[in-house]
Each structure stands twice: as structure tokens, then as C-alpha cells.
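dumping this here before i forget
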Amino acid sequence: MKGSNEFSFSDDSVAGSYDDVLVPILFEPWAKALIDAHGPWDGRRVLDLATGTGIVARMLAEQLGPSGSVLGTDLNAEMLKVAAASISNEFRNIEFVECPAENLECIDNSFDYVVCQQGFQFFSDKIASAKEIRRVLRDDGTVIVSVWRTVAECHFFNTICETLESIGEAEIAGMMRAPFDFLPRNDLEVAFQSAEFSSVDVNFEERDMIISGGVEHATRTAYSTPIGPRLRSLSEEIQAQFVDEFAKHIKELASDGVTMGQMASDVLVAKK
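structure:
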């Protein structure tokens, strides 16, 4: 997993660009699909684990009604700053707290649902995290966890990796692989089975990756990922090489100029 330990959201420029660029393109459509597929949400108490900049929490807050609430937790202070700044006065049923997934600052049996969109793969102790999720869930509560499949199945990000490798930047490519290639489906299932959930089911989901602004928008998206600071630290010559090669790959990937292949995810649903 060479270089993947440097895949970080802690830079404030990463948190801002992530929310401005990646969330609308990628995380918001997947959040909507997750929320639409599950529930009912009205009146529920929900924990949004690894909330990031809060897109799942905000979308849930709109459906929970006056008697429901959502708590968003994350270990990253910069992401939480962006999340907190995004809350309007109408969202009185949402709160954000900084704490680790392995040691949640929540009382036992306090949530109807725990949701974790594309964060579980980053947790250092996955079995301990699954046990914490079970602890804070009410009896018959539900956890929903989505985790990207391999980067080869997530075509846009695979294109970033292939471009970096083609210009001799394999270490940065390794960083880009961190969200994708290090949590196989079986390991995800085992974490929740080990935590003694009563049922554990994992389903495959796939959707188009739509980037409406073509090559320029796609390049800005690549720079808005957590490898952005590393890309910007490269010499102007190497960055120009990356941009040129990336444009060639994107044109091959997106025959219509906007559909940048597919994204694939495993979605786990487990009952306490």
C-alpha cells in the first residue's frame, strides 16, 4: 500500500475543494441513492459515521422530520469545519462531532440507523469499529456501509492512476488507490460478522460517473481529490505532462464527453 498513508483530508484546501467539486459529482448522487433505498427515516435517530463535509447528514436531515435527528462524526477537523459551515438555520436536527470510529462518544443503544458512506475502508481497526457501531445501535437497529470496489471498477479514478503511472509517478498513484483496493468484500463482511450482527448482507451497486464539463472539469476533479496537494507540488513540467496525458485518457474513456465510465461499490446492510 505504498504511499497510501499519505492519502489525507487534513489539508483545508482539500476539504474545501472536495466539497465544492467531488461532492456534487460523486458523493451527492450516491448519498441520494442510499437514502432513497433505505429508511423510513421520519422520526429516526441516525449516526452518520465518517460524515466528511456532511452531505449524507444534510440530506438525511431533510427527511427526518421534527422528531428525528442526525449526528455526523468524523476524525478530520477540517472536513467538519466545512460540514458545520454548510448548515443553515433550518437544520436544527443536525450536529457534528469530532471523534474516532473505534471509540464513539455516544451512549449505548442510542441510534436507529448508522450510515457510513465511503469511510469504513479508512478505519484503522475495522472489527473494533463494527463493534462500536453495534454498541450504539438500538435493538433491531440497522447499519448501512458503502465501500468502493477496486479502482479497476471505478473507471475515472483508475484513469488518474494509469496516467500517473505512465509519467513515472507511481507513488502518487498508490495514494489514489487507497479508497479502493484495500478492503475486499469478504473482509467487510467479516468485520460485521465478528461484531455479532444478526444478519449481514452485501450487494453490488454500479452507476455512471457524470462530469458535465468535459476534460477541463475532469482535470479539476482530479486536483480536488486528496492527492491534489501532491499533484500541485510537482514541477510545472511534470504537471503539464500529467494534464496532457490525462486529457488523452479521458477522451478515450468518455465517448460522449461527460460519462466518465462507471463507479462500483459494495453496500453492506446489517441488523443488530
